[in-house]
TrEMBL record, chain A:
Pfam families: Oxidored_q2. The lineage of its organism: Bacteria, Pseudomonadati, Pseudomonadota, Alphaproteobacteria, Hyphomicrobiales. Residues 104-114 have a biased composition (Basic and acidic residues). It is found in: Cell membrane. Signal peptide: none annotated. This is Monovalent cation/H+ antiporter subunit C. Residues 104-127 are annotated as: Disordered. Its main location: membrane. NCBIfam families: PRK09094.1 (NF006573). One of its GO terms (cellular component) is plasma membrane.
UniProtKB/TrEMBL annotation, chain B:
Belongs to the CPA3 antiporters (TC 2.A.63) subunit D family. It comes from Methylobacterium variabile. It comes from the Bacteria. This is Monovalent cation/H+ antiporter subunit D. One of its GO terms (biological process) is ATP synthesis coupled electron transport. Residues 139-447 form the NADH:quinone oxidoreductase/Mrp antiporter transmembrane domain.
Length: 127, 534
């Protein structure tokens, strides 16, 4: 289970970082969401992984074999906050799309003659 | 857990609840505000003004009481390591007062026109103050995260206030950067919880002082990640490239109150590094990094202000220089210099706020404000579609002369020229660093600070000439009564800080000494010390 969880966090983070660095705003939002999933799983893992252990003590529960409820509360809070702020970011994204007419993070489409990472030497003739 | 202690009389029991008021009062008023219709903006303005005045009063009470022992407020009366505590000590009380004064002046400034430039301005403004106050008061790391997020969510709204393409584009970057910073915050907090098993700051300090935990390295990694989140928020180099663009794009009252926002990051770095790394197994952790980040921030801010072509950008870089100065002084580890830095922090934040307000008035007649296209039809109101006759307040004659004097005062404070607080603060830093055996880092800091004074003075004089003396085609700047009041308030606070420099510096000195003794803080929060209430 540890391997699956850590691999999951890693894949989410890698995909999130890659998407965050993409030029389109929607990709950035998706990247941020994936990153926040990774972080939430990470917080959860910080309470140690257990199977079938209750987080809340009741009448018949074993008082030794319990899960840490604090990290679960933390995840819940972080989840709500990141969800709300992603929604807010989406609204700003839509506003930017409406105002600039472009979904590029710079607010404008890269021009043909301008150097950009895909084409660092725009003046050079193609072979 | 612990039974309520009810040995105090009813009156003093009520007085204990003053500590929670800076958080409860603004959020309650915000709740009322969101219920009111947008057309009742005059009532809303009065309500928010009254709230911020009350906040200043509460902060004054807390500053007065903080002299002896810190006030610890246990939310829900749960004992410290189990529940959330709010702690009002000297540093918190000072920052609360600073936030209140800056907030009041920005709010008064917004009465002239900006308050009506978009919906829900006053509610967002109070929500921002609530988040800032909460971050200053809380003694729990996760609670700090929640207050940070409240503060940031409100600041996203305020940065976009007034709409327009520049603001939306700047806001997009600002929100993305801060969302990533929040994720760093969460990773750091959860690593600290995973290794130490607590999130109460005082309990963390106590556990560090005890037997050395096995996974100390993991704890330090968590603290470093947490530190990155705060350094992004206080715009330390190389994490602060978002700040000048965002602050220059924000409307003037929003930018002025955002000046306190970057100081929240500085405050948390100060609080945590002195509490956790003042002594114990990881003594001095991160000090070198903070010093380097501070020095680089001052240098970058100075180069930026030299290159700035308008006053709002210059003010943004001035905010960076002020944060960088406090960080660098913290990195040198000198308590005396820290006292000077705290004094400098207050003066320079007030001056930077005043500069944002001034810049907006001066540049108003010059660049016609871009005609923003409505994006959401039901939300949009043109900020300047009101006829001048309906604006509150009269125009002040000789406005340009007053603005010139204000700009002069701001320049003197930010560049650290006598006799204003910028100079006094820097002098206090220099004299503490230069007493006894002066270290290489001390020399470095003195050199960088001196150069940054010169580097601030030159562009500010140039921008002053450009904005005040060079004739231009636009209409001359018009100063309204509320705008004058706001400016006068901020500048009078700066002047007062210089005139009553003795008491202010001795307060800062006592604060620095208090911060250097984290045992007293730990004892007060965890209930070992008498007088811990309620």
């Amino acid at each position: 289970m540890e391997l699956v969880l850590s691999a999951g966090i890693g894949v989410f983070t890698a995909a999130g970082v890659w998407l965050m660095l993409r030029p389109r705003t929607f990709q950035v939002v998706l990247g941020l969401s994936l990153l926040s999933y990774a972080v939430n799983l990470f917080i959860f893992a910080m309470g140690r992984l257990t199977v079938g252990a209750p987080p809340v003590l009741g009448a018949g529960t074993d008082s030794v074999f319990v899960d840490d409820p604090v990290t679960q509360a933390l995840v819940l809070t972080a989840l709500v906050i990141s969800f709300a702020l992603t929604a807010l970011f989406l609204v700003v994204l839509l506003a930017a799309r409406g105002v600039t007419g472009s979904d590029h993070v710079d607010g404008r489409e890269p021009h043909q003659g301008e150097p950009h990472p895909g084409n660092p030497h725009p003046g050079a003739p193609h072979p | 857990m612990s039974p309520p202690v009810m040995n105090a009389s009813a009156a003093s029991a009520w007085a204990d609840h003053v500590v929670v008021l800076p958080i409860v009062l603004p959020i309650a008023v915000t709740g009322v505000m969101f219920l009111l219709d947008e057309r009742r903006h005059r009532f809303k303005a009065v309500l928010s003004l009254a709230t911020v005045v009350a906040l200043i009063g509460i902060a004054l009470v807390l500053v007065g009481r903080a002299g002896t022992a810190p006030e610890v407020y246990r939310v829900g009366n749960w004992a410290a390591p189990y529940g959330i505590v709010l702690v009002a000590d000297r540093l918190s009380a000072m920052m609360l007062l600073l936030a209140g004064v800056l907030g009041l002046c920005a709010l008064v400034f917004s009465l002239a026109r900006w308050g009506r430039a978009g919906p829900r301005f006053h509610g967002l403004f109070l929500l921002l103050l609530m988040g800032v106050n909460g971050a200053f008061l809380t003694g729990d790391l996760f609670n700090l995260f929640v207050f940070f997020e409240v503060m940031l969510a409100a600041s996203y709204g305020l940065v976009l206030h007034g709409s327009g393409e520049t603001r939306i584009r700047a806001g997009l970057g600002y929100i993305a950067v801060n969302l990533v910073a929040s994720l760093f915050f969460l990773v750091g907090v959860s690593l600290i919880y995973g290794t130490m098993g607590t999130l109460t700051m005082a309990d963390l300090a106590r556990r560090l002082a005890g037997p050395t935990p096995g996974d100390l390295a993991l704890f330090e990694i968590g603290c470093a990640i947490l530190g990155v989140a705060f350094l992004i928020k206080c715009s330390a180099w190389p994490l602060g490239f978002w700040l000048p663009t965002t602050y220059a794009a924000a409307s003037a009252p929003a930018a002025a109150v955002l000046a306190i926002l970057s100081k929240v990051g500085v405050y948390v770095v100060l609080r945590l590094s002195l509490l956790l790394f003042g002594a114990g197994p990881s003594e001095g952790f991160g000090q070198g990094a903070i010093l380097a980040a501070g020095l680089a921030t001052i240098a970058y801010g100075t180069v930026g202000i030299l290159a700035a072509r308008d006053l709002t950008r210059a003010a943004g870089y001035a905010v960076m220089i002020s944060s960088g100065t406090v960080l660098a002084v913290l990195g040198t580890g000198s308590d005396g210099a820290l006292a000077g830095a705290l004094y400098y922090l207050v003066g320079s934040t007030l001056a930077a706020g005043a500069l944002f307000l001034l810049a907006e008035i001066l540049q108003r007649g010059r660049d016609p404000v871009e005609a923003a296209q409505p994006v959401f039809a039901d939300e949009y109101r043109d900020p300047f579609d009101d006829a001048d006759a309906t604006e509150i307040g009269r125009e002040i004659p000789a406005g340009v002369a007053i603005l010139g004097a204000g700009l002069l005062l701001c320049t003197l404070v930010l560049a650290g020229v006598p006799p204003l607080p910028g100079f006094v603060g820097k002098l206090a830093i220099f004299s503490s660093l230069a007493t006894g055996a002066i270290t290489a880092s001390g020399w470095c800091l003195i050199a960088v600070l001196t150069l940054s004074s010169l580097g601030t003075l030159m562009p500010m004089v140039r921008l002053g000439i450009l904005n005040l003396w060079v004739p231009h085609d636009g209409s001359p700047p018009v100063l309204r009564l509320s705008e004058l009041t706001a400016l006068a308030g901020l500048l009078a606070a700066c002047l007062g800080l210089a005139l009553w420099g003795g008491p202010a510096l001795s307060y800062a000195d006592a604060t620095a000494q208090w911060l250097a003794q984290p045992q007293a803080y730990v004892g007060a929060v965890l209930g070992d010390a008498p007088g811990a209430t309620p």
